[in-house]
Amino acid sequence: MKVTYEHKPAITLIGYSTSIHPEEGYQKCPEFWNLEYAQKYARLWQTMEPETPVEKAILENGIGMFAICDEKEGSFDYWIAGLYKGGEVPEGLKLFTFEESYWAVFSSKGPLPDSLQKLNTEVWQQWYPNEGKKYMGNGNAMLEVYSAGDMQSADYECEIWIPIIRQDDTSEIVTEMTMIGILSTTRQ
Questions:
Q1: Domains in the chain: how many in total?
Q2: What is the DSSP string of 45-112?
Q3: Is 30 a member of any domain?
C-alpha cells in the first residue's frame, strides 16, 4: 500500500447514488456498478451518441471515473460520479462537493473489484490504526478514483482519497470521520 499526502482545491462531482448497509459494501458496490452499467452505459459505450440528458452528462463529465462513499448513520451513500464541468444537472443526477483539503492518497494495482477492496481493508486496518491516527477526517466522505484502461488487468491502477486534517490543527476541523461500516469491513 502506497500513501502520499496532497493538497487539493475544492472539487465538485456529479453522479447518482444508492444507499448501502456497511456490512454489505463489498458485495453491493460491485452490484450497483453492474446494474448501472447495464442500464446507462452498455449502449452508450457502443455508440458514444447520447440519447438522453443523463447520457450526455455521463459523457461530458466522465461519470464513472470516481465513486464517493458518503457515510450516513447506519449506512453510506455510494455514488458513481464524474468531475462536474458545469451546466444543467439532469433529473436523476446530483452534485457533491469536497472542500479544499489535504488528502491521504492510497494507490493500488490489479483487477477490480478485488484490488480496490483489498486496498480499502489495508487503509482501515493498517494505515488508520497507525499513521492515520495523526489525522481526522475532513467530512464524512471519501473517494475512489479510477484510471482509464482494462479494469481486469493486473496493471490496472486505482486509488482511494481520504480528505484529512492533522489532529493538531483543531482550528480547521469540520467533523471527525467515524471509521465504521465499509471503512472497517473486512472481506469475507
A1: 1
A2: HHH----SHHHHHHHHHTTTSEEEEEEETTEEEEEEEEE--SS---TT-EEEEEPSEEEEEEEEESST
A3: yes
161 close to 145: Cβ distance less than 8 angstroms? yes
Other C-beta atoms closer than 10 Å to the C-beta of 52 total 13
**How much is the pLDDT for 136?**
83
Phi, psi dihedrals of residue 68, rounded to the nearest 5°: -115, 135
Q: Classify residue 69: in a domain, yes or no.
A: yes
Q: Is residue 62 in a domain?
A: yes
CA distance 111 to 148: 13
Least confident range of 61-70, 100-109, 133-142:
133-142
Check which CATH number belongs to the domain holding 66 and give it.
Answer: 3.20.80.10
Range of the domain at 8: 2-183
Query: Whole-angstrom distance between the N-terminal and C-terminal Cα of the chain?
Result: 20
Does residue 118 contact residue 187 with C-beta atoms inside 8 Å?
yes
93 and 16 Cβ atoms separated by less than 8 Å: yes
pTM, rounded to two decimals: 0.86
Give residue for cell 453522479.
Answer: 15
pLDDT value, residue 132: 87
The residue with cell 444543467 is: 88
